[in-house]
Amino acid sequence: MLGLSQYYQQKINEIQTVLDGYRQGMKQQLVSGLSGGAKALWITALYEQRNQTTVVVTHNLFQGQKLYNDLEGLIDAEELFLYPANDLIASELAVASPELLAQRIDVLNHLAQKKKGLIIIPAAGLKKLLAPLYLWKASLLHFETGKTVQLDELLRKLTAIGYERESMVTGPGQFSIRGGIIDIYPLTEEHPVRIELFDDEIDSIRFFDSETQRSLDMIRGTVLIGPARELLLYDENFTTAAKGLESERARALKKMSDQKVKELINEHTEAELEALRQNQPFNGMIKYATLFYSKQTTFHDYLPGDALIILMRSAAFRRWRSSWTMRKPNGVLICCSAGSSSAIFH
Predict the structure, then answer these.
(1) Which residue among 35, 44, 325, 333 is least crowded, i.e. fewest CB within 10 A of its CB?
(2) By C-alpha distance, which of 23, 54, 44, 47 is closest to 303?
(3) For residue 238, what pLDDT is reported?
(4) pLDDT at 333 (0 to 100)
(5) Going edge to edge, which strands form the sheet with 201-208?
(6) Concatenated DSSP letters for 125-186?
(7) Residues 6 or more apart from 187 whose CB is under 8 A from it?
(8) DSSP assignment, residue 148?
């Protein structure tokens, strides 16, 4: 029986063969015999050998979480991510988990900064509509001692990226501005951040306790604060959505002859249309995600060109292929259970 180190070396040799073929432009390669913990070891070795962003697509969130748990301890914690997405859109609308949202935002922040990582994502996550990558990058807030802050512009950005203004910050997704003190509670941090100004210049940055409001550790260097939601909505995005909804409604009404149905459609959409005209967020606005931006963006658009996508099951592969219409990947590796075959496409 092979020892762990021998087994691991054998897998590295197998992976090197796959990578050599990949670099030589081979269209298809077969891999078999992966089951249980062998998948985690194989993915770890592949990621370490390539040293580039790798995305693992699982059939569902349960399998994604299981694989994430298997990879913990094998991959650097700062490079291992789970992008949790529910299989049913209805369930995501019904249960908006702040914890799952924070994990997704953490992944998007990481990719927007062009950092490499190993990301596990359920197939359903590939279909989620997101803000354009350029807009996400522009919405990342960078704070550093000695730099200046334009409060009006900061207020506009914080509101657009999903933060709610409160008199006192007590929970994630909130911010407050009191004189020369700016408090922001990112979804991705354990504690909120307090920025103290001297005139318009940052004098100090530190974490603080949201319950006692007492300052904690001083933060050295640059602090990055990302969005508090996945839809980034500036005034121009509301305007675009309002015009789009008006157009879609007019087109739908034109095809109808039943006056009562027309009145019902007007009644159910008018309040939301008015909110869009007034640049006001509202519950359920995610259903208009296709109207906020001129181009539809999905997770794949956030990936670097050299990213490798690993599909853990053929079912996930079929769902992924059906949702991916924009561009081909640099490489796709389909990993199946022992006894099955797998392939890499380039």
Answers:
(1) 325
(2) 54
(3) 95
(4) 55
(5) 164-165, 174-178, 181-184, 193-198, 201-208, 215-218
(6) GGG--B--HHHHHHH-EEEETT-B--HHHHHHHHHHTT-EE-SS--STTEEEEETTEEEE--
(7) 98, 101, 102, 105, 172, 173, 226, 228
(8) B
Segments of the chain with pLDDT less than 70: 1-12, 22, 25-36, 87-96, 313-346
**DSSP H stretches of helix in 161-258:** 235-254
Q: What residues form DSSP beta bridges with 177?
A: 182
Integer Cα distance of 274 and 296 in angstroms? 23
Q: Which two tokens stand for residue 91?
A: 């369930």
Cα separation, 312 vs 336, in Å, equals 6
Residue pair 178/188 in contact (Cβ under 8 Å)? The answer is: no
In contact, 143 and 310? CB cutoff 8 Å: no
C-alpha dihedral, 292 to 173 to 80 to 337, nearest 10°: -60
Q: Which residue, chain included where needed, has tokens 């319950």?
A: 211
Each residue of 286-343: pLDDT tens digit? 889 999 999 999 999 999 988 888 887 654 555 555 555 444 455 555 554 444 334 4
Token pair belonging to 81: 């991510």
Predicted confidence at residue 42, as pLDDT, reads 82
